[in-house]
Amino acid sequence: MKLAEIRLKSNEELKAQLSDTRHEYMNLRFQVVTGQLTDTSRLKQTRRLIATLETILRERELAASREGAK
């Protein structure tokens, strides 16, 4: 998913996607431990998507607090 597509989503959608992505990451980690995961690059991709989602949510939170302070 591209960054521009992520930025178009609402906060609620981002939080839902973040929750789903964290759950997916947990399942991927279990698959690595049990030897079922063959494409280990998915771990890195999922971890980066989580970081991107958290960053965008934090940016919005800071922007809202700045607007409230003015």
UniProtKB/TrEMBL annotation:
The keyword Ribosomal protein applies. One of its GO terms (molecular function) is structural constituent of ribosome. The keyword Ribonucleoprotein applies. InterPro entries: Ribosomal_protein_uL29, Ribosomal_uL29, Ribosomal_uL29_sf. One of its GO terms (cellular component) is cytosolic large ribosomal subunit. GO terms for biological process: translation. HAMAP family: Ribosomal_uL29. Belongs to the universal ribosomal protein uL29 family. This is Large ribosomal subunit protein uL29. The lineage of its organism: Bacteria, Bacillati, Chloroflexota, Anaerolineae, Anaerolineales.
